[in-house]
Amino acid sequence: MSGVLVVMEQGNRMSWEALAAGQQLATGLNVPLSAAAVGTSEGVEQKKLDHVYVVENPALKAYTPDGYTAALEQLIRAKQPEYVVFPHTYQVRDFAPKLATRFGQVLVSDAIDLRVEGGAVTVVRQLFQGKLNADVKFGGAAPYFLSVQAGAFRADALVAADAPVAAESFAVELDPAKIRTKPEEPFRESQRAVDLTAAEIIVSVGRGIKEKENIGMVEELAQALGAELAASRPICDNGWLPMERQVGSSGQTVSPKVYIAVGISGAIQHLVGMKGAKTIVAINKDPNAPIFEVADYGIVGDLFEVVPALTEAVKKAK
User: Fold this and answer.
1) pTM here?
2) Dihedral (C-alpha) 106, 109, 113, 115: value to the nearest 10 degrees?
3) Which of 51, 103, 171, 176 would bridge 34 by S-S if both were Cys, CB 3.0 to 4.6 A apart?
4) Cβ distance 207 to 263 under 8 Å?
5) What confidence tens digit (pLDDT) does each residue in 86-139 have?
6) Distance from C-alpha of 231 to C-alpha of 246, rounded to nearest angstrom
7) Residue-by-residue DSSP string for 28-96
8) Does a cis peptide bond (omega within 30 degrees of 0) precede residue 143?
9) What is the DSSP letter of 24?
10) Please, where are the H alpha helices in the chain?
């Protein structure tokens, strides 16, 4: 077995992050990279890889764990990749462990990093809500299955193809009688007023703001920067900002170009949601605050002095 296969999920941005992880893994191992999607190529032909497979069968029109497991099993047995990479989505969590079991393997889920050392792959994943990192190595015979955490790999780091790769149709045989689930309409979340995952700049406020009335000061900075306003959990729990603006393990996972943390100490539950940011700026009066351990730039000072000064500087610069 050789090569890396990334399984794309239709319409899910996390698939592109998984493909970025696949590119990193294939480059480190110096092996071919392939991508597979059910029913459509998802436009992946424009990215740097060797093969694109479109898995096709009328029974795959709607997602079912039985159908996807059987179809991808056929693809993997035919193409024999050594590593199979997924985005860590709800759908993947539903069928991928079942798929891995078909090959006598387990799914190493929610990876935040991949290392290739001497031809061996180490998967880094978090334990206890991010309090510990664990290095995991695969055992037994390939193929090996892993999923990557949202925001852990950057879709904007994807290398484009010099020329589009032709998509190859891969027809699978499925017995409708063995698909035990009757699919219904896909679950849709209620419409959010703001999608923080699409924001390029985020200004996030924490309990250091002290009172709800002071949030306006941070909001002014966000407006000056053309940024989205976000918050840590205590702010949303208090009802000072709506829950849809919460970043963290129980909120949204974001990966903006710039993340400014104002009065946020850096509890691990919050860091899990924003550590994928390209540049992190922290403003906190406590020089020992954990947020400074992940920050690219840190300002140790009173936010009530720093934020207005920063807002004024941004306005002058514009």
Assistant:
1) 0.78
2) 0
3) 51
4) yes
5) 999 989 999 999 999 999 999 999 998 999 998 899 999 988 767 788 999 999
6) 5
7) HHT--EEEEEESS-TTGGGBS-SEEEEEE-GGGSS--HHHHHHHHHHHHHHH--SEEEEE--HHHHHHH
8) yes
9) H
10) 14-29, 65-79, 90-102, 215-225, 233-237, 268-274, 291-294, 303-317
